[in-house]
User: What shape does this take?
Amino acid sequence: MKTFLIRRLLAAIPLIFVVTFITKAMLVASPGNYLDTIRLNPAISREYVAQMERMYHLDSDNVFERYWYWLWPAVQGDFGYSFTKSATVGSLIGERVLNTLLLTGSALVFSWLFAIPLGMLAAVYRNRWLDKLIGFISFFGLSIPSVFFSLLMILFAAKTGLFPAGGIHNQVMWDVMTPWERFVDTLWHLVLPMIVLGTIGMAQYVRQMRSEMIETLSQDFIRTATAKGLSRWRVLTRHALGNAINPLITIFGFSLATLLAGALLVEYVFGWPGLGTLIFDALSSKDEPIVMASVVMLVLMLVAGNLIADVLLAIIDPRIRLE
Assistant: This one.
């Protein structure tokens, strides 16, 4: 296990280099930079703008030079200073990454809690009305764009008043709330973005779970367990589920990429203060230090997701040995 983890972590290093270099190349190739907005201000002298260009190395179009000036401090843990937020990039990322993890983690739990039983029911009642209903739910989750779904949920919140329409907590009453009230308020704000993001992930898992369960139920060991007189519930949960769930764990790491990409859009629409809103604001203002650090963080989260999937698969299926 230790050897496997070390190898996977070492393999993530060239991945980070490649992704960050491509990101820097795209930023350099795109027209303009952050200082273009400053130049429009007549109160700021040309000498000051030129000094800022030299300080942040924005006066060069050489991708390798710009990348090196970012890479060398980043390797030492210094991701620079935000152009627009007047704060270090590390502090800004630290404030937002926990909010993104909260949203993606809750959406992941939501999708698994519903996808596994729905996939099992669809397989057991194959080609019946329940299977068709679950198939429609899955098709809905796969088809609807996350941005449009988010707007629908915001409209629902605005019309009914049952849920907050955006944000992470009540801005007015937050300072006077008790810790328990803050916890409940945060969960209440989490419900709608979690449903949007979790429904998209759930749709993928339901289809996979249904197909794997149908194949598992046709195996000889299932017929043997049924012939021994075991109840249908015991056969499904103790014998079929463990074998059918393995492919879902395998695709966990890949689905996490889709989940994170969807989370960035959902955060922006709901005004959720995570990496999504931070990245979009940084892209619109050409705040390169924030963009680069956010990309590194997202790659690390994807690598961690794939590692967790491999470890879980080895724990659940004793036939798999990571070494």
Q: What stands out?
A: The mean pLDDT is 81.
